[in-house]
Amino acid sequence: MEKVSVIMPCYNDGEYITDAVASVFGQSYTNIELIVIDDGSDDPKTVSILEELEKQGNVKLLHTERLRPAGARNAGIEIATGKYILPVDADDLIEPCYIERAVQVMEEKENIGIVYCRADLFGEKSGPWELPEYSLRSMLLDNVIFVTALFRKEDWESVGGFRTNMEHGMEDYDFWLSLLELGREVEQLPETLFHYRIKPRSRTTKFQESAAVVQETYRNIYLQHPRLYEKYKDEYAIILRDALIEQLFLNRAYQESLGILERLRKNPFLKYWIKKFILK
Prior knowledge:
Blueprint: E1 4-10, H1 14-25, E2 32-39, H2 44-56, E3 59-64, H3 68-79, E4 84-87, E5 93-94, H4 98-108, E6 112-123, E7 127-128, H5 136-141, E8 151-152, H6 153-159, H7 171-181, E9 185-198, H8 203-207, H9 211-223, H10 226-231, H11 233-265, H12 268-277
Parallel strand pairs: 1-2, 1-4, 2-3, 6-9
Antiparallel strand pairs: 4-8, 5-9, 6-7
């Protein structure tokens, strides 16, 4: 049974990390090492909880100074002794059979380099995480694989780890593209085995607030993978055109709906009800 190293960065997530750790040690797969990276936490509650975890003896605790998620993951993977790596953030949860099912795929199919599953949301929002199905076509346009996916440590070494110069995040997307450049393939388990916590504020919500930041980040990802995008340049051009056409039609439908609403507002009989139930 090959060892799996679970890599868990933590920055002031003491409120959640106990549950995350429990979900790791509740796995049906038993050959696991858990490496928690305290990335400069300054919250007293978090520091205390991490100290208690370290005393238990079954958690490797590594201290870093605000390397941010990509750097913290790299630091943990650097000392990991497992053949396989599974990042799990300190506020998320995994189902008991996730690692076992993912390792089974890796062991049976040497061409597979990334194994992930279906996921749902909890916290500020709940329900299925409606990500598009994996395909190379979808990955060339946007990330459809969350960071809590199984991969080989040797592949991480081959591509130089997670890129740490991505100030606004998306380093997992960049990393998956690097593995695809190695010729690795992807498999998604059909069950919902990962639970992603939605917080009121996070790196993701900050990232989504600025169009300029999003544009810059995706531009950099494109420029960081010239071989991949050159290889699929014709398909990528078609994907972009299709996406643009879809957005144009969606925008037109939205504008038309605004026009219909404005005409309805001018109807005295409907004006009150629209104001009460639609525009409140």
